[in-house]
Amino acid sequence: MDIRTLCLGVLTMGDATGYEIKKTFEDRLDLIFHASFGSIYPALNKLTDENLVSCREMSQEKRPDKKVYSITAAGRYRFLEEIMKKPAGDRFRSEYLATMMFSHLLPASTISQLIDERIADRTEKIASMLEDCPDRSPNSEQFMCGYGVAVYQAEIDYLNENRHLLEADALIGQRAAE
Amino acid sequence: MDIRTLCLGVLTMGDATGYEIKKTFEDRLDLIFHASFGSIYPALNKLTDENLVSCREMSQEKRPDKKVYSITAAGRYRFLEEIMKKPAGDRFRSEYLATMMFSHLLPASTISQLIDERIADRTEKIASMLEDCPDRSPNSEQFMCGYGVAVYQAEIDYLNENRHLLEADALIGQRAAE
DNA sequence: TCCGTTATATATCAAATCGATATATGATAG
DNA sequence: CTATCATATATCGATTTGATATATAACGGA
User: Fold this and answer.
1) Among A138, A162, B11, B147, which residue has the fewest nearby CB atoms (within 10 Å)?
2) Interval B75-104: pLDDT, tens
């Protein structure tokens, strides 16, 4: 499954421009699947070439022109083929956790600050998820929203209960450095 | 922070071959930072060119020759510089969750099976984490291990409590298709 | 008023990274 | 006897990132 496939998926939910697809990735899918402009625009061009989406250009007043994409019947079929495949394993990259892994090399104050910031960030993300995801949404979106909240809340709880492990390490490092 | 930096990080914990570094990523860092052979070997070559690591070749009986890498003083300094920087945001990609997002397009049996498999996988991962991460480990490793267990357990709990949301969607999709 | 930032919108490109493949040997399991 | 797994390194096409460029309008603060 690549970004082309995910663009098809977003388009099954309704027509959209490349910009709007990026917004959807940012707002609702970043927890699931990260994608940048540099991959979305080329993906849409290729999908258009393959007749999996159609594109109509619209000129706008007071806004740049835009290209609105619609998924075609062939596109829907292709998307179904793709999501029938066994999903590959998750791929995760967190510079934050990588930093924490080496907390014993950093000053205690830096570690504490990073943890505070993380908790604040996760708290914010939970709030915006709960706001954007009311009862009206389809079940799958509610599920995803709840999933995000559950995981982020687990992270917050864990940080609050175990931050002393890292803060102790950092203190030791600091003393050794003195 | 790139894979070169993380290789330096792994080498602060002791000398290792490229293969062993890959193992470390798989066994203990996959939750944190994904990396493949295709990026690790070139990373080590470049680090060697920059004198951030040194390399000694060792011929072995009954095993292929290997190259053991050690971090240099310059490497340690560079690594510290890198982890002092503000960490970039997490980058996540889960084909599994992407599939779940469109569960209403799939047969109910497929969804149920995927959820069962996910729970089994997470349960296994927790078990192996608890096994590999006893008290002897330094605080930061215990912290990471606990973090993984907490997040995976939250996922399992959430799936058990909310799988009906997706399974209901899939049933509806199935009826509509009939 | 002027200036910086944010939002809308598309496009491109070097650099980073993935994942598959190739090569070689020994051990272990079925 | 054969298949698979573990050790070990290397390469390469394809994918993806993240930064940058371009253009216009709105909005708020100094």
Assistant:
1) A138
2) 999 999 999 999 999 999 999 999 999 999
DSSP 8-state class, residue A26: I
Residue A153 contacts B, CB cutoff 8 Å: yes
Note whether residue B9 is domain-resident: yes
| Pick among A95, A165, A169 to test the B interface (most B CBs inside 10 A) | A95
Question: Which of B84, B112, B129 is the endpoint of a domain?
Answer: B84
In this prediction, residue B72 has a pLDDT band, given cuts at 50, 70 and 90, of very high
Of A45, A23, A48, A46, nearest to A36 by C-alpha is A23
Question: What own/partner pairs with CB < 8 Å and gap ≥ 24 does A85-89 have?
Answer: A85/A1, A87/A1, A87/B94, A87/B95, A87/B96, A87/B98, A87/B99, A87/B114, A88/A1, A88/B95, A89/B95
Number of domains making up chain A: 2
Distance of residue B150 Cα from the nearest chain A Cα, in angstroms: 6
Is A57 in the same domain as A112? Answer: no
Task: Please write the tens of the pLDDT for every residue from A58-104.
Answer: 887 777 789 999 999 999 999 999 999 999 999 999 999 999 999 99
* Residue B161: inside a domain: yes
Beta bridge partners of B56: B68
Residues B148 and B99 in one domain: yes
Closest residue, CA to C1' of C20 = B38
Boundaries of domain holding A148 = 95-177
A7 CB within 8 Å of a chain B CB: no
